[in-house]
């Protein structure tokens, strides 16, 4: 955990992947990555609205200026947008590749991200592999593991407090002058 993450809802990364531990970028670096990003490819995007990838995609389409692309070899359309069978099939080179795949598939997705020239490799909550992270960095990519793009985007754009909570006031009190419901 970096000093910039202390007290900001940070958590220790699971110790997976052979070799020495890997420490990901701190909050300031993640914020800068998202600020530089113009296009996001969601690998493992799902048509199922109950899946995290669909929820994140819905948020990114509504709340960000990113060009969002979906990658899933078994789907043709998600949220009214075309779906591509692979990163190589995309009409653009994505800045950020967000991964919603099994842990065992991270290495293969990283290989694809490197091959297409992506600049950031971002693995969703629960996905962490120190070896894959080090390999991605060695290839010149910025790598984030075990973090949610939606949460981080909302956090850095004012939708969430740095601790991860929405700081909007929620109250059971009636507004001044309002009448109770019948």
Task: Walk me through the structure.
With 182 residues, the chain is an alpha/beta fold. The protein has a single domain, classed as NAD(P)-binding Rossmann-like Domain (Rossmann fold), CATH 3.40.50. Helix content is 27%, strand content 15%. It contains five helices and seven strands; from the N terminus they run αβαββββαβαβα. The chain has helices at residues 27-36, 52-63, 106-116, 130-138, 149-156, and strands spanning 39-43, 67-71, 77-78, 81-84, 96-99, 120-123, 142-144.
Notable characteristics:
182 residues; Rossmann fold; 7-stranded mixed sheet; 5 helices
Derived from helix and strand composition plus strand pairing, the structural class reads: alpha/beta
Question: Roughly how many Å apart are the termini?
Answer: 52 Å
The total of beta strands comes to 7
| CATH topology title | Rossmann fold
Kindly state the percentage of residues in helix: 25-40%
Number of helices: 5
CATH architecture: 3-Layer(aba) Sandwich
- Order of SSEs, N→C? HEHEEEEHEHEH
Could you name the CATH homologous superfamily? NAD(P)-binding Rossmann-like Domain
Radius of gyration: 18 Å
Q: What is the arithmetic mean of pLDDT? A: 84
Spans of at least 5 consecutive residues with low confidence: 1-18, 161-172
Strand order of the largest sheet: 3-4-2-1-5-6-7
Sheet with the most strands? 7 strands, mixed
CATH class: Alpha Beta
The proportion of strand residues reads 5-15%
Total number of distinct structural domains:
1
Shape label: globular
């Amino acid at each position: 955990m970096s000093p910039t993450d202390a007290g900001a809802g940070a958590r220790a990364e699971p110790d997976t992947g052979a070799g020495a531990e890997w420490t990901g970028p701190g909050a300031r670096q993640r914020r800068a990555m998202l600020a530089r990003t113009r296009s996001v490819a969601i690998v493992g995007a799902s048509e199922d609205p109950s899946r995290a990838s669909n929820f994140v995609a819905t948020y990114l389409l509504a709340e960000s200026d990113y060009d969002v692309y979906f990658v899933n070899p078994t789907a043709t359309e998600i949220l009214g947008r075309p779906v591509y069978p692979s990163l190589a099939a995309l009409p653009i080179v994505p800045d950020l590749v967000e991964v919603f795949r099994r842990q065992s598939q991270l290495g293969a997705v990283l290989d694809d991200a490197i091959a297409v020239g992506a600049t950031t490799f971002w693995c969703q909550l629960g996905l962490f592999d120190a070896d894959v992270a080090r390999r991605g960095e060695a290839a010149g990519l910025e790598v984030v593991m075990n973090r949610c793009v939606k949460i981080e985007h909302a956090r850095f754009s004012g939708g969430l407090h740095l601790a991860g909570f929405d700081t909007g006031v929620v109250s059971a009190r009636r507004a001044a002058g309002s009448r109770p419901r019948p």
